[in-house]
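Input sequence (204 aa), recorded before submission:
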Amino acid sequence: MLVSTLRTGLIWLLCLGIAIASWRFLWAGVEASMGHVAYHADLRPIAFYTHVILAPAALVLVPFQLWNGLRASKPGLHRLLGRVYGIAIVLSGLSGLWLALTTEAGAVAAWGFGLLAIAWLATTIRGIGLAMQGDRLAHRRWMIRSIALTLAAVSLRLQVFATLLLDLPFDTAYSAIAWLCWVPNLIAAELVLRRGTSLRLRTA
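Predicted structure, token format:
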């Protein structure tokens, strides 16, 4: 029970905390808050702002979508939030793919972030499609994969912070982070699914 409660609290804290931190450009400015990608704001502002606004919105919705109590007591709200989650990912995923294709961080980073965007879109669209078909079990499995990829936003920020803390060469580390922020998440999701368990929140 204690482990479950701690896990629940950690998911809420990380999702909401990282989302708010990601939106800090709204009051601090793009250059001050995300200088390493600020060039995107000048060169392709629609894609940039779509991604940096809607990707954190999807992250905020993760704990709500994992919340079993909400899903059981208010299925209509769960479906509504699921639609919002899906729309946020489709728009931010497509814009993120364009940003990956036009990144100045090099080919390794471009491939890493590009494949992340494709996998994010594919798992989410597949999961929503299964929900519309009424296959709840398959829907849940695909949405666990989608959520694992949404949580790449958390992994990325923690890994960037570790890079700065350890004073590692940022350009080299960033190329690795483009893969490390999501591949281990997806592997972990597959291991969870193979055990026949699921990621879930028991309480609000």
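Checked by second reader. Residues 2-194 form one domain.
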